[in-house]
Specification:
- With 310 residues, this protein is α+β, with helices and mostly antiparallel strands.
- The protein has two domains: 186 residues, Jelly Rolls; 104 residues, Homeodomain-like (Arc Repressor Mutant, subunit A).
- The protein is built from twelve helices and eleven strands.
- The strands form three sheets. The chain has a six-stranded antiparallel β-sheet, with helices on both faces. It has a three-stranded antiparallel β-sheet with strand order 3-7-5. The protein has a two-stranded antiparallel sheet with strand order 9-11.
- The radius of gyration is 27 Å and the shape is elongated.
- The protein starts with 10 loop residues before the first helix and ends with a helix.
Length: 310
Amino acid sequence: MIGNVPQLDNPEETSEKIPENILRRQGFKCLKRSDLEPDRSIVYWSKDADSQGIEYPSGRTHNSISMTVTGNTGFQKDVRRNSHPGTGNINTYRGDSSYSWSYDTNVKCDANVKFVSFYFKPKSMEQTLLEDLDMDPKRVEYRDSYRQSNLVFESIFQKLFLPLNWGDNADYIALTHVSSLMMYNLIKHYVDNLDDRLGKIHCLPLHLKHRLEDYIDSHLDSGMSIETLATITGYSRFHFLRMFKSTFGISPGRYVTQRRLLKARSLLEQNDLTATEVAFMCGFSSLSHFGSQFKTAFGMPPNSYRKILV
């Protein structure tokens, strides 16, 4: 399981279980934050060193992954003497487990600790698993980890999340894309019991292949989105793209272009149609675009091709 979210009817009780509120009550300052859809957020934290440490009670509303930005020397988890965390260390937390970090009195503590945390409700990861990866969330486990060195997540935090302006509407679009990248990598690196379907790419069933071919050939004069084609097959966009390329050997966009060009070549053999008419009958946005694509595919412009047929 990805984690159990507490079912709380009282808003005040729910507030007590939100990780951000837990840290604020323990003296942490939010330097910047941004809400990300669906059910995700990113927060940059700071705290002056003291002897209180950090307490995470169980039953929190969100899972999380965090990275130390500066400081953290002197922290130890669960009052056990492990190697001390440092800059760039990665920790992952399940919301349904409790954690305790304290200061090692034998180690000089940093004056200030800063770290960045990515929070997500279990249902957000479950949705990604189910809708994008076609996997059953009930069969997998989100894993705790502490003080790991992981260049993938260090790069996501340091090079993608932190440089963005979290309060800027333009950068918000980038933030949501980074959020999706983070979720896919969390599944890849910190989810146990994944089956091997992520490594296998299956072809489309024959009846779906024929259904797609018929639909595409009958709609060459209009626009076709990936979402529309995926809906025809019943697969998620992610799974559809992988299966389409495995089946046809090329991307959907390239396949549609090839079918348009073959139709255009056939229509050009009919002398009563102009190149402009053929272009728009086959779904090309302009005559120049049609001419460029046709020459690349067949070695000559449309009008030259027509001349050799006469």
